[in-house]
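Worked example

This section walks through a single chain of length 415. The input is the sequence exactly as stored; nothing has been trimmed or padded.
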Amino acid sequence: MRRRRIVITGMGVISPVGTGLNKFWDSLINGKSGIDKITCFDANDLPTKIAGEVKDFNPEYYIEKKELKRLDRFTQFAISATKMALEDSGLDLSNIDKTRAGVILGSGIGGTITWEEQHKTLLTKGSRRISPFFIPMMIVNMASGQVSMTFELKGPNFTVVTACASGTNAVGEAFRTLQRGEADIIITGGTEAPITELSMAGFCSMKALSTRNDEPKRASRPFDRDRDGFVMGEGAGILVLETLDNALKRNAKIYGEIIGYGTTADAYHLTQPAPEGEGAARAMKAAISDAGISPKDVDYINAHGTSTPLNDKFETLAIKNTFGDHAYELAVSSTKSMTGHLLGAAGAVEIIASALAVYNDEIPPTINYENKDPECDLNYVPNTSIKRTVNVALSNSMGFGGHNACIIVKKYNGV
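Given that input, the structure is written out below as tokens.
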């Protein structure tokens, strides 16, 4: 069976560095950090007091006010970013077969804000005061469910939960669904709103987060010798994927073509990557094989690059294992240096950054790269974006539980 070609025709972003595609990309290219002191709750008792909060999002621009109280913030993000992506795509939903249009999203932990608020209600006011909307607001699949209901999309609909790889796995599964001919259009990506006292306390207890509280904008420093942990972020990245035939029929703008997807398991440890990034290397190799290209064809890698000691070391080793000598010719950057780590939304937001790098022939930097780590010796595009032809970009994601996922985006030249 002929594999159908799949292209990106619309994108929407809500992120700590800006809401909307143009603001997001402008911030990345100019090395703007979205990390600051936490304002959504009192973090004084926590070892980490910083995060990448979304500061410029007003859900009432996208969702009727009466509906908002029934939607957790992560679902508000998903619906709003979908509206942006659909507008960007130019799709007229009244002119499509909605049974052939689906929604596949990723989220790592879903409605944690609702969970935490309702637990406090239980402890202080009793079980009779729990909201009847508690469960449908909190469960992780509700973002994809609500998006499908909002836009009346009746095709394949599900949610991927693979921790920090969720967004990338969701895009990969959307890609596969379209290739198989099970739909013509898929709304895909990831969404997360994890900045709560309990979530932060849990990650602090694991000693996973940076404690560079006095210098928030310098705290996320992937591949730098003095990195001390990741910085939590929130937001959503949504892409409109279509078959090439469908996009050409309506003369759509095409940002790029997804040509490869690879996903593997470390089967090693709850939170630590496999030694030398063995699982991540297999995922990259699988994506390259799926794309039918040579490792030398890849120009740019948007790294998982969390700013944790082990991830950055082992991801570097995985890149070397996958690309050999070409690893030193690649541009490798981590946009988490600016956005922080959006958990289940991270991969989707970073695939959007990769697609924009391909579309604009410009590569965002890894900011806060000041001190070289001898174990991280690739070209991490330090501190300043570069103009460079990007025909092929690879985006990496790795999640707790040993989940690895990679997506490859290629420039579309009308052929």
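What to look for: Residues 73-89 form the longest helix (17 residues).
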